[in-house]
Amino acid sequence: MTLSLGFTDRPARVLIVEDDPHHRQLLEVMLAPDGYLLQTAATGEGALLIVAQQPPDLILLDLMMPGMDGYEVIATIKGNPATRAVPVIIITALDDRHARMLGLNAGAEDFLTKPVDWAELCARVRNLVRLKAYGDHYGTYSRVLERRERMLITTLSSISDFAYVFDRDGRFVYVNQPLLDLWGITLQEAEGKNFFDLKYPDDLATLLLRQVQEVFGNTTRITGETPYTSPTGVYADYEYIFSPVFDADGAVESVVGITRDITARKREAEALGMAKDAAEAANRAKSQFLANMSHEIRTPMNGVIGMTDLVLDTELTVEQRENLGIVKSSAEALLTVINDIMDFSKIEAGKLELDLIDFKLRDAVGDTANALAWKAHQNGLELIVDVDDAVPDTLRGDPGRLRQILINLLGNAIKFTPHGEVVLRVVSEAASPPEVLLHFAVSDTGIGIPLDRQQHVFEAFTQADGSTTRTYGGTGLGLTIASKLVHLMGGRVWVESEAGKGSTFHFSARFVAAHVSVAMTVVPDTIDLQDLPVLVVDDNATNRRLLEEMLIGWGMVPTVAIGALDALAALRAAQQSGRPFVLVLTDCQMPDMDGFTLTVAIRNDPTIAGTIVILLTSAGLPGDAARCRASGVSAYLPKPIRRSELRSAILTAMRVRTDDQHPPALVTRHSLREARFGGRILLIEDNSVNQLVARRLLEKRGHIVVVAGNGREALAILEEAAFAGFGCVLMDVQMPEMDGFECTGLIRDKERLTRSRLPIVAMTAHAMEGDEARCLTAGMDGYLSKPIQPDQLFEIVERHLERMREDIAQRRRAQAADRSGLWYP
Question: What is the pTM of this model?
Fold first, then answer.
């Protein structure tokens, strides 16, 4: 049927203002059977243009739209005398009282919540269109007005809400039947009465009458809530709206009130609040349980892994080393499962967060790759890291979570690749400064992933091969966690793969370019590398390219050779040409002749015997150092190669040669690190096993370690002059007598007098989300979770020792040393 205005043959014009095309089309479908002349607008600005050209008979208005929102549209329409009579029905997904009150107070006639009931929408639209027609044609079509008025009264009496109209004195001129039934009187008995006459409580009657007068005076809607007990003894909570009714001259001639029983809704809200409180309490209990379990598991795991590392570093038989290797790998596998379960529980609770700090990207990537280098070597793989020169090095982000993503992707690539290589590439993508958008890609030559399984690999507890006979282990949580972390970092993750031809896992992540440089020790450039000829020997094309790019970036002139025989020929040819190679970078494992044999051949040829040889290996083996010294290798570094370490090794090896040391010292990754300096460290730990593990690791590294069993003992040690000169503190958190937080606070209080700061690093089994932030907030400078990984321990301790040394040097250069304190050198 066609629903006209009742006074002309033209159909009613309805304007639908909705930015979502699906909802806009749905409203058109709902209203189409009623024959309206439908117009649509996707924005508030577009709607106002349509209204200005020809005001519609009714507007269905969404609230949340780009640009001008629904509230502004209502205000503009209701503020214009030419359009203020156009009724507006708000249709929105916001289902809260505040949004409803804002919309109704702004001037909307009605408010519907999505999803909209078809019949209710049609009924409300029809009623408001008819009301509009009344106003438009009042005085000219009195009979139509009377008919519409009867229809309106019938409609208002059929709804469950209470509807009523006030005159200027606050007396009722109309009351619908539901409200009359509540009062237990007739319309004739209600007409001319006010709230006092109807036995409302004095304070409530005074409030409501004042609000009615405010609507008459301010011409704006007023809303409110109140409890009320009717004369018939019915108690309920009510929500009411007082709206002005304007005459032809724009003056308020009466006030319409709508009251709705919200008792059930309030009870539901209260029940929801109680359920929410109960759920939060249960979640807190679960989080506390997980935190306690994490602590109790990690403490003995620290002893197992730490003591195993220490024993593996001693003289062992082949069988003993193999057995201990199984112990360590099993413990690390168990720790991986524990960490995955903990992280997955955080994901479920929505508590997985990032800890943003300044860090060196290449160090973070290099440390991660180095931790997996031995596993790659066991599989006979080349592990290659390629960080583009354009990638900034000092960033602000969460390096721990970045390492977690990389360890997962690189670990999977190594696990699923029986032969070939695994390559990690990092490049920059376009971003607005100071934001840095990086693209990471982990490629392998492994088994690949079938196309029908690729979309499932990021799902929890899912693997490409989920059968009971599957070859590869794992929880199936790693990629799920990595995916969530990538999304937290503002990026995305995806995979490209073909079964039997390998895979490439990509992810992007957003960082911020850091303004504060992260401290880092490098060998001073006392030797000029510019135009230095160097020979690169490696049978792997990717490795050759990466080394060539690094060397060119330092101003050196590299030449590449694919094997030892080609290298010897190139060395002799260069010697004869009068421009000999000063340096050779050679791979250790090559098919025709390995790196050791090549070095011996170089040393046995008097014409090229003085060439510096740096050996690069996928993994070190027992006895390699002795072979290096015997064959004349100058430096020995494990892959994947870190730029900073390779440059330092080159400079150090060249400096050692110019110093004419006999025999020259072998340059290794460990010697480069140990060349920095040892430090005096205070270890505060109550567990004897953890004390032993940490102390032995640090002492083997060349540091002096003093142990305290709790915070109280630590403070006593720090007060003794004999124990002055600590460069770093390793602080357990959970200890008897005085815990790590209290001890840190007391140390920081004393430092306000000394104007110095002793670096404090948390070393704790508390590894739940927020524990690191809690430690940093308490005044600590770093955080290590147990079980302690030696490389992580050395990196953070030596970084803080170095910063401490630099701070002291700066203070001494700036002013005379203040030696009044006892805690610092």
Answer: 0.46
